[in-house]
Write a structure and sequence with these properties.
The protein has 25 helices and eight strands. It is an alpha+beta fold. The chain has a five-stranded antiparallel beta sheet with strand order 4-5-6-7-8, sandwiched between helices. It has a three-stranded antiparallel beta sheet with strand order 1-2-3. Strand 4 and strand 5 form a beta hairpin. It is flat and about 70 Å long.
Length: 522
C-alpha cells in the first residue's frame, strides 16, 4: 500500500492555528525583549532538511548557552541569555522586568514537559512531595524556569532552513522537545557546567518552598539587598517570610516587610493574644486562618482558646521550632483537614496530661514525615490518642515517623485470609506493606503505590496481586470496605487492561469470602 504524504494526513486549519500561535509568541519576544527570530513559513520542507535542522539546533545548545537561563550579577538578575534584566536597586524596574519575562513565558504555546530534565533536577534540587505526582512540576521554581527557557531557545533559534524549522515547531514539536530535554538533562548532570545554575537556587532549604519563579526572584532580590536579614527572618518568622515572598510583589522590599510584621503583631495583640503567643502566630500566620462554615465552627471562625491550645501542642511537639521540618505540612493542610484537626480538639476541651502527651507523640511524628497521605493517617491517630492515650504516650521520644508510630501503637494490618486465597488455578497474594504495594504498581504498570498503605492500615481498602499457577502476575484487585462488607471495587490487568471473565469471577468470589475488619477511620 502506498504511503500518504504527510500533508494529506493533517488538517490545514489546525496547522494554521498553530502557526498563528507560534508567530504570536515570537512577536511577543521581539516586543518584550528586542530579541526574536524572523517570521515562520507555512510551507512544508522535505524530510532531509528537517533532520539537518534538528542536528543544527542540538549543536547550538551548548553548556554556555544553557547556562544563560539565569545569571546572578552584583547589580541584578539576567534571564534567558540577557534578554531580560532585573536590577536589584530599583524595585519597580525589577518588577517590570519580571512582568515582561512572565508575559512572554505565560504565552499559550509551549513545547511541553521535559521528563528527563525533571528527573535529573529532582535529584539535584528535590522539590516538595505534597500532592499528585504532577503537582511538584508546577511548583518547582527551578523547573519552571527551565521549562520557559526551553521554549525561548526553540523560538529564538536561527535556523539554517526556516521552512524546515517551522515544520518542526508546528507539526512535530515533540522532536524539538526531545532535543531540548536531552541537552538540559546532560548539562545538569555535569556538575561543573551547571554549578552557577544550582547555586542560583540556594539556600534550597528555603527556596524549595516557593511556588513559582516570581516568588523565587522576589527572594533573590531580598537576599541581595540584605542577606543576613533574610536568614534571620527565616529563623524568626519562616511562614510569614514565605507568605511575603509568595505574593510575588517583587517591588516590595525589607521596609515593607517590616511594616507588615508590625501591623500583624499589633492586630494580634489587639485581639487579646499574649506577647509570646502573638510572636508565634506572627511566625506561622496560617494557624489563624478560618475554616469552612460547619460544626463546631458555624461561622467559619476558630475560638482563640482553641488556637491557643493547638499552639501549645505544636510547640511541645517541637514542630514550630524547626521550620525546615514542620513548615510544609502546617502550611499546606487544606481547609477540610484543618477543620477536622481543630474540630477534634474542640470535642475534648479539657484533656488529661496523658491525652496531651499522646497527641504530642502523634503531632511530632506527623511533622517528621510530611506527605499527601499524612493527614489521612494522622487525624484518625489523633482521635485514637484521645481515646487510648496509653498506646501513644510512651512513643513520644522514639524518633518515629507517622507510619512507624501507627504500627508500634496499633499493630500492623492483619491479613484477611490465614493463607493465600486460591481458586481455579489463580492465587491472590495480599499486599500489606508500602513496599509490596509499590512493587505491584511497578510490575503491573499502573498507579498503585506506597501511599495506598494508609487505606490498608485504616481498614478501608485491601489490595491483592493475582497470580497464575506458576506465580506470574495476572491482575491487581482492590477491595473497598462497604457497610455490608468487602466489595470488589476494581480489578485490572497489566497497564490497566481489562481482565478475562474468569479473573473477574475469581475477584468476586474472593470479595464474598472476605470479612471486614474493624476500621480506624473517623
Amino acid at each position: 500500500m502506498e504511503k500518504k504524504a504527510w500533508f494529506q494526513e493533517v488538517s490545514l486549519a489546525k496547522v494554521f492555528e498553530t502557526m498563528v500561535d507560534l508567530e504570536g509568541a515570537r512577536a511577543a519576544l521581539r516586543f518584550l525583549s528586542g530579541k526574536g527570530a524572523g517570521p515562520l513559513s507555512p510551507d512544508a520542507p522535505p524530510p532531509p532538511e528537517v533532520e539537518a535542522e534538528l542536528q543544527a539546533f542540538a549543536e547550538a545548545l551548548t553548556p554556555e548557552r544553557l547556562s544563560g537561563a539565569i545569571r546572578l550579577a552584583p547589580e541584578g538578575v539576567h534571564l534567558f541569555g540577557g534578554a531580560f534584566f532585573l536590577p536589584y536597586g530599583d524595585g519597580w524596574a525589577y518588577g517590570e522586568g519580571l512582568q515582561r519575562a512572565h508575559t512572554w513565558a505565560a504565552w499559550m504555546w509551549s513545547l511541553g514537559h521535559y521528563e528527563e530534565t525533571w528527573e535529573v533536577l529532582e535529584r539535584l534540587l528535590p522539590g516538595k512531595k505534597k500532592g499528585t505526582p504532577q503537582l511538584p512540576r508546577r511548583r518547582h521554581p527551578a523547573y519552571r524556569l527551565l521549562l520557559s527557557y526551553g521554549d525561548y531557545l526553540a523560538l529564538t533559534h536561527t535556523p539554517r532552513d526556516p521552512v524546515a524549522w517551522a515544520w518542526l515547531l508546528d507539526l512535530d514539536p515533540s522532536r524539538v522537545r526531545e532535543v531540548v530535554d536531552r541537552a538540559l538533562a546532560q548539562w545538569l548532570r555535569d556538575e561543573e557546567a551547571s554549578r552557577d545554575f544550582r547555586e542560583a537556587f540556594q539556600p534550597w532549604e528555603v527556596l524549595r518552598h516557593l511556588g513559582n519563579p516570581a516568588a523565587y526572584l522576589h527572594a533573590r532580590r531580598l537576599l541581595a539587598l540584605d542577606g543576613e536579614r533574610f536568614f534571620r527572618e527565616w529563623r524568626r518568622h519562616p511562614e510569614a517570610l514565605l507568605s511575603f515572598l509568595s505574593l510575588g510583589h517583587v517591588s516590595l522590599d525589607w521596609e515593607a516587610y517590616r511594616g507588615l510584621l508590625r501591623r500583624g503583631y499589633a492586630l494580634l495583640r489587639a485581639q487579646g493574644w499574649g506577647e509570646g503567643e502573638a510572636r508565634w502566630l506572627l511566625a506561622y500566620p496560617s494557624l489563624t486562618r478560618g475554616v469552612r462554615k460547619e460544626p463546631p465552627f458555624a461561622e467559619g471562625r476558630v475560638p482563640r482558646e482553641l488556637l491557643s491550645r493547638l499552639l501549645s501542642l505544636l510547640l511541645r511537639a517541637g514542630i514550630l521550632q524547626e521550620p525546615g521540618r514542620g513548615l510544609p505540612w502546617l502550611r499546606e493542610l487544606d481547609h477540610e483537614d484543618w477543620g477536622l484537626l481543630l474540630g477534634l480538639l474542640a470535642e475534648d476541651p479539657d484533656p488529661s496530661p496523658a491525652q496531651e502527651e499522646a497527641m504530642v507523640a502523634v503531632l511530632r511524628a506527623w511533622g517528621r514525615g510530611p506527605g499527601e497521605e499524612d493527614a489521612l493517617l494522622a487525624l484518625p491517630l489523633l482521635k485514637r490518642a484521645l481515646e487510648e492515650p496509653w498506646r501513644f504516650a510512651a512513643l513520644r521520644d522514639k524518633n518515629l515517623g507517622l507510619r512507624a508510630l501507627a504500627e508500634r501503637a496499633l499493630g500492623r494490618p492483619e491479613p484477611l485470609f490465614p493463607e493465600p486465597f486460591a481458586r481455579g488455578g489463580l492465587v491472590a497474594v495480599e499486599l500489606l506493606s508500602p513496599e509490596a504495594l509499590e512493587e505491584e504498581g511497578k510490575a503491573m504498570g499502573h498507579c498503585l503505590g506506597r501511599e495506598a498503605w494508609t487505606w490498608v492500615f485504616l481498614g478501608e481498602k485491601r489490595f491483592f496481586g493475582l497470580r497464575d499457577g506458576e506465580g506470574r502476575p495476572v491482575a491487581t484487585l482492590a477491595l473497598w470496605r462497604a457497610p455490608e462488607g468487602w466489595r470488589a471495587a476494581e480489578v485490572r490487568g497489566p497497564g490497566n487492561a481489562e481482565v478475562s471473565p474468569e479473573v473477574r469471577a475469581f475477584a468476586q468470589e474472593l470479595a464474598e469470602a472476605a470479612q471486614a475488619p474493624q476500621s480506624l477511620a473517623l
